[in-house]
Amino acid sequence: MPTHDVPPLARRLFAELLGSAFLAAVVIGSGIAAQTLSPNEVGLELFENAAATAAGLYTIILMFGPVSGGHFNPVVSLADACFGGIRWRDALAYIPAQVAGCVLGAVAANGMFSLAAISISTHHRASTAHLFSEAIATAGLLLVIFSLARTKRSNTAPAAVGAYIGAAYFFTSSASFANPAISVGRMFSDTFAGIAPASVPGFVVAQLIGGACAILAIRVLYPDVTPAEAAQVILPHNEEASHDGGRSVRLPA
Fold first, then answer.
1. How many domains does the chain have?
2. Domain of 55: which CATH number?
């Protein structure tokens, strides 16, 4: 993995923790708001949830991506390690930070709407169609991310990732979790965006299978992908962060 000017691991883990917390808060909080504002209008509720998630994910990646890469997703971190963009030990350290962040975000979302801090979801989702959807959604997400990194278009990744997830809310029956950490976090909110604990293991396995399929596809599509290119996932995360059409700005230490 390229190591020039990479921020210290502690800073990257803090960025992943905060970013994952904001992501879960956006997903769950917007779901609660949608259910409150548009009761019994499931299509409208889903649209509001998807729009807020897409916009929120875009801005959260912009906020924290220059420090940690803006993964907020164990499958993204593991795939990045497979391509040499991040050390395996760092990828494994990212995962608990991402999971803990998503749990914290769920608690925060519940609190912002005067709900119990922790309420275990009863929303069962693990049908065959849901699991297949999660594999497809996760594979597509990785294909978006790594194709942009390989073709040197990482500056467009925040918008592309947000747009893809927003679209996947509607083209998948599972509403596109595509992320083991957010799957765990959403257990702790018995609201519109929640998922029952019994459904989570199936979702995580499906997401990992989708991620593995995407890695194989990326190796076929881009057989010469380099660790330096993988290190740009999702955003370049070194001290000399790319900004504004190729100009570099020095991030504060």
1. 1
2. 1.20.1080.10
